[in-house]
Amino acid sequence: MIESDIKRQLEIINKGVVSLLPQDEFTARLKKSIETDTPLRVKQGFDPTAPDIHLGHTVGLRKLRQFQDLGHQVVLIIGDYTGLVGDPSERSATRPQVAYEQLMSNAETYKNQFFKIVDESKTEVHYNGEWFDKMGLKEIMSLASNFTVARMLERDDFEKRYKDQKPIAVHEFLYPLMQAYDSVMIKADIEIGATEQTFNLMAGRQIQEAYGQKPQAVLTLPILVGVDGVNRMSKSLGNYIGIDEPAREIFGKVMSIPDKLIYSYYELVTDSDRETLDRVKADLASETVNPKLLKEELGVILATMYHDKDQAEHARQEFGRMFTDKGIPDDVPEFSIANLGQTIWVVRLLTETKMVNSGGEARRLIKGGGLYLDNERIEDDKLELDLKEGLLFKVGKRRFFRIIK
Question: What is the pLDDT of residue 283?
Answer without folding.
Answer: 93
